[in-house]
Amino acid sequence: MRWCRALAAIFVAAALAGCQGWQSALDPRGPKAGAIADLFWIFLGVCTVLWALVVIFLSVAIWRRRGGRPDPLVTNTAQEQRITIVVGTLVGLTAITLVTLTAFSYAGQRRLFDTHEGRITLKITGHQFWWEVNYEDPDPQRSFMTANEIHIPAGEPVRIKLESSDVIHSFWVPSLMGKQDLIPGRQNLIQIQADREGVYRGQCAEFCGWQHAHMGILVIAHPKDEFEAWRNQQISARQPPEDERIFLSKPCIMCHTVRGTSAGGTVGPDLTHIGSRQYIAAGTLPMSRGNLAAWIVDPQRIKPGVNMPLIKLDSEEVQPLARYLEGLK
Hints:
By secondary structure, the chain is of the alpha+beta class. It contains nine helices and twelve strands.
């Protein structure tokens, strides 16, 4: 019996361990994710009760089974009437259960996909295999672009436009929102809100190619004053660090933008403030000078199939270039 209890404890602990974390649909931190979690627990509770009732009645029927076969020609009108009443009642209860669950699902869907104009609007474009994040503003001077990280104010709804530049992707931050596809030639709308400050991890949830599993995204919720400070810092031009000459003399400028320089490529992520991001390569590597250098030298080894090509660098240019990118904050 001891080993049975130990095995049960291990199973329960393993099951509950998946109910929280920075990428868990069962750990909602916003109203949209809360609507999904409520639906999940309602459906789970109802289905669990129904399953338990079926098992109980089946067990009773097996236990009370009578021996021998009854004569099929013998009828028992009273018993048939009782059976008809029981079956009819169960069918009615089943219909009521289905209608009730459908109503809960419909109400949850309306709550989930209710979007309206907010103070902050983002346009997120999915690429193989990274996320382009455009902060829109009526004043063009306050619009800017970043990649693979979304910064939002805590406690405030944020409207997001979803588009794709190549194949179908799916935007999913489990703690804040359900999944929504990004479809080429079409724009979908969602709204997210983080009730509290924190870092929430998201993921592309639609297979989009070789590096689909390494297409992560972070949503970082700040207090409102910290968010405004971050936004003002992103709007400002980068501070010219050392070793800029190496970057501007390489093919990097054909694919990437660094505002305030001649680098104006739009194929890859905007690097204007890359040094302030927590990860590089869409959540694949933590931000550090060493990881930047490894990514620059051989991105295909780290993320096979990524569209970033190999560039020719002399050995003495790698560290200065990595230092330059790390300094873009």
